[in-house]
Amino acid sequence: MKLQQLNYLVAIADNNLSITKAAEKLYTSQPGISKQLRLLESELETKIFERNGKQLAGITELGEEVISRARKVLHEINHIKNITNLINDSDSGRFSIATTQTQAQYVLPKVFSSFHGRYPNLTIDLQQGTSEQILSQLQKQEVDFAIASGNIDLGANIVKIPCFQWDRTVLFPHDHPLGDLKKIQLEDLAKYPIVTYPFMGNAKQSSLTDAFKKENLEPNIVFTARDADVIKTYVRNGFGIGIVASMAFSPQKDRDLLGYSTKDILPRCTTWLAFNKNIFLKKYMKDFINDFAPHISSEQLSHYIHQDYTSSLQLMHEHESDKAEDKPLPMHQMWHI
User: Fold this and answer.
1) What ranges do the domains of the chain cover?
2) Of 89, 101, 154, 197, which has the fewest CB atoms closer than 10 Å, so is most exposed?
3) How far apart are the first and last CA of the chain?
């Protein structure tokens, strides 16, 4: 078994089972990959891929396990290379983060302002996407860190650190009927079309829709968009009222809209930072975590890294629970704005 063969396996799996695309990505030939694949399957005496003629049609159950372990082997090799390069290359390289538009536009600029000043030779690759895309990139180890929000199960191989909480804000034009109310309730929001963020998977997993259902209400969500500025645009064009992250609304920049905090009627959201458990955390990565979540001590970070998955879930739920008053997460506005 060769490392090259493991690299081919992962490339095929990551390119929709296309040997041609895998060859292009690895700058090698298709026949060469096909030959090494046959040799590997012969050595292992098993089929890693299901075939339809000459085309790969799927991954066998045993093949899934082989590819999963191949990823770990290749990742550990990268760790060894990183360790040997630390002394001469500790303040440079590529630091990749996958996140949402809200975090990228409204939270991270202030964080990167100080961080980039300390690491000017470090190339920061900020990739935006949906929660599903971010999770996929993280699990495939295509990015170093992932930053997103929501109660999402990332799996046993991922370290997930709750960092801060934030409220949602309801947006509507100055002449909207909601502006005449002294106190807005969920039943008031249910009367109007709503423009908000898309849900991960489906609406059943959303704390937003859950809040309405607990009051026997059905939100009329007519339009969803990943970008808060797009949501505001459609609110301005009369599609409905908007519900966005509080940090995405500025009374100065969004003067034509009124913003109403939902802290009393909708549950707070938690933003988390995540990375693969077997990643080698370089000094600049630890410094970034400290800049992004300064309330997390080095001892707490070490605890998150080394605890087992069950303990991780329990600690995460303690942070996200409204009853965890002894160790509340800070609100975003308290330390970023």
Assistant:
1) 3-85, 93-158+272-335, 168-261
2) 89
3) 53
**CATH class held by domain 93-158+272-335:** alpha beta
Answer whether 3-85 and 168-261 agree in fold.
no
d(CA 247, CA 252): 13
Pairing of strands 241-245, 145-149: unpaired
The CATH superfamily holding the domain 168-261 is Periplasmic binding protein-like II (3.40.190.10)
Please name the residue ranges forming H helices in the chain.
3-14, 19-26, 30-44, 61-85, 101-102, 108-118, 131-139, 186-189, 207-214, 228-236, 283-292, 298-306, 309-320, 332-335
Tell me the percentage of the chain whose pLDDT exceeds 70: 86
| Domain at 3-85, CATH class | mainly alpha
Give the predicted TM-score (pTM) of the model. Answer: 0.66
Tokens, residue 148:
């997103």
DSSP letter for each residue of 232-246: HHHHHTTS-EEEEEG
Residue with the two structure tokens 């996140």: 99
Q: How far is it, in rounded angstroms, from Cα 271 to Cα 223?
A: 23
Cβ count within 10 A of residue 143: 23
Q: What is the pLDDT of residues 184-239, one digit of tens each?
A: 999 999 999 999 998 765 545 688 999 999 999 999 999 999 899 999 999 999 99
Taking the CB of residue 181, how many other CB atoms lie within 10 A of it? 11
Q: How many helices (H) and strands (E) does the chain have?
A: 14, 12
If residue 270 lies in a helix (H) or strand (E), which one and from where to where?
Answer: strand 269-276
What 3-state class would DSSP assign to 50? strand
Residue that the structure tokens 């000017």 belong to: 120
SS3 150: coil
C-alpha distances in angstroms, 61 versus 33, 64, 66, 67? 21, 5, 9, 10
Beta pairing, strands 220-224 & 193-196: parallel
